[in-house]
Specification:
Elements lengths: L1 E9 L9 H20 L3 E6 L6 E6 L2 E6 L8 E10 L2 H9 L3 H4 L2 E6 L6
Antiparallel strand pairs: 1-5, 1-6, 2-5, 3-4
C-alpha cells in the first residue's frame, strides 16, 4: 500500500473571523474525519503546524540564509498535513475528498511518498 501526503494550504486569515465555538466545531470535523480514517486503517499520521511561521532556508552565494517566514502578508501558508495509505492516486483522491480542509482551507496538495530505498 502506498502512502500519500495531503498538504493543507490556507490563508493566514482563513479562521480569523470564526468565534471560539465555530473553531471548536471545525476542530471536531477534522477530528472526526481523522478518527474515521484511523478506524479504516488508512491514517499513517498527520499534524497541524503551529501558527507561528517558522523559518525559511535558502542557499545564497554558498551560504545558508535563514529568515523568519512565511510572513503574515503571505497569501497562503502550509497549515498542516495528513499522511494516508491508499492503493493508488485514485483511492487517495477519494479519501481526500472527505477532508474538511476543502471547505475551510484554500486547497489540498496530494503527493505520493517515495519510499527510501535501503
Amino acid at each position: 500500500m502506498a502512502q500519500f501526503m495531503l498538504l493543507l494550504h490556507e490563508s493566514p486569515t482563513d479562521f480569523s473571523s470564526f468565534s471560539p465555538e465555530e473553531i471548536q466545531r471545525v476542530i471536531g470535523e477534522y477530528t472526526a474525519w481523522r478518527l474515521r480514517l484511523q478506524e479504516e486503517g488508512k491514517l499513517a499520521g498527520g499534524l497541524k503546524l503551529a501558527d507561528e511561521g517558522g523559518r525559511e532556508l535558502s542557499l545564497e552565494n554558498d551560504r545558508v540564509r535563514v529568515v523568519d517566514g512565511p510572513y503574515a502578508e503571505a497569501k497562503e501558508v502550509l497549515g498542516g498535513y495528513f499522511l494516508i495509505e491508499a492503493a493508488d492516486y485514485d483511492e487517495a483522491v477519494e479519501i481526500s475528498k472527505g477532508c474538511p480542509h476543502l471547505e475551510y482551507g484554500s486547497r489540498i496538495v496530494l503527493r505520493e511518498v517515495d519510499p527510501l530505498q535501503e
